[in-house]
Amino acid sequence: MSGGPPVRAEASWPEPGDGAPPPVPGFVHSDFSPLVAAVAERCLSRAYGQRPAPDGGRTAVVLVTADGDRDSAAHVRRTVAAGGRPGPLFFFQSVPNSVAGHVAARWGLGGPVVCLAPTGDPRRDGAAEADLLLHDGDADAVLLVLIEQAPDDGGARDRARAVAVLLGGGDRP
Questions:
Q1: Would the N or C end of the chain have less CB density within 10 A of its end CB?
Q2: Class of 7-16+26-168 per CATH?
Q3: What value does the mean pLDDT take over residues 143-158?
Q4: Share of the chain above pLDDT 70, in %
């Protein structure tokens, strides 16, 4: 991200040796939220070592996803179409900022939580939002998380990918 805020740490999921992301209490059925939590944990651990983030009080979270939690949405659609009732956790986890808030709470991040559906390149759109938060003084650092689940084609479960980047911190010009 040349010309933007400095990159303090970066992580991906999967990286070599990764299996499924660990489950997250309160999130069911889909790997969307566990994947967001796992990649954020990896990135923040690389920057800080352990929780909580010592400078997290003004760290924002920006979650960028074009389609959100596709697996949960498809499950709810099938359940309703068959005359069933989705469980209450599906209502909670259907909002992507639920998992962003979970990450913020675990790491003591007290800045804004923003979820974006990109209109162009997801990384560029997310970096622009992060730069705006930093420039306007709403945050001193931004955890940018980009995630997409591929359409369910009946194939392997490793079809979701995520990247987390910790931006900013330190002195700004």
A1: C
A2: alpha beta
A3: 70
A4: 79
What are the beta bridge partners of residue 161? 148
**AA identity, residue 94:** S
DSSP one-letter string for 107-128: HT--S-EEEE--SS-HHHHHHH
Average pLDDT for the chain: 84
Residue with the two structure tokens 């660990």:
22
Domain ranges within the chain, ordered by starting residue: 7-16+26-168
C-beta of residue 11 within 8 angstroms of C-beta of residue 163: yes
**Higher-confidence residue: 33 or 151?**
33
Query: d(Cα 50, Cα 38) in Å, to the nearest integer?
Result: 14
| Of 6-20, 48-62, 115-129, 145-159, minimum mean pLDDT range | 145-159
Q: Who's near 143: CB < 8 A, 6+ residues apart?
A: 40, 43, 44, 59, 60, 61, 62, 103, 109, 164, 165, 166, 167
Q: For the whole model, what pTM was predicted?
A: 0.84
Can you tell me the distance from the alpha carbon of 112 to that of 92, in angstroms, rounded to the nearest whole number? 19
Q: Give the CA-trace dihedral at 62, 94, 161, 6, to 10 degrees.
A: 0
